[in-house]
Amino acid sequence: MITHSKKAFSMVTAIFVIVIMATVTALIMNVTGKTIKETTQQYQKEQAALLARSYTEQAILYALHYDRTANGNCINQINATFGDGITSQVFNITTNIQYASNEAQLDASNCENIARWADNGTAGFNSSLSLLIDVYVSYKDFDDPSAAAGVEDRNITFHRRTLQKL
What is the pTM of this model? Predict the structure, then answer.
């Protein structure tokens, strides 16, 4: 009779150890999944921030070298995509450029998308043409289940605004 109780005790102990190990394994898997998701989101946000900075600088270069007099207008928007969707994620970038200065500067520049303020005769900010650049970088979250289903309205958008004096 003693032999049967030892076997039963060993079986109960083995089942208890298996349950504890399964619980610890599930906890480790849960923490690992959350860590991977957080790392992925951080990577996507950093990539969007770097793209926004890069396209801000591109907008400044385009505005500086765009011949407003010959074309009779100003460059107001730049649209681009980054990534091919197969080997890398697709980021949609929209850059809006607004021009700001006093009346004399803006009339000479032929710009339509402008902000005007009165010339108070002081040198400095009012005496030159300035750019207000808004860069929007939108992308899909890797871990969003509706992104795989093709839902378009679930994009994350990173926004950067820059004021640049020309």
Answer: 0.71
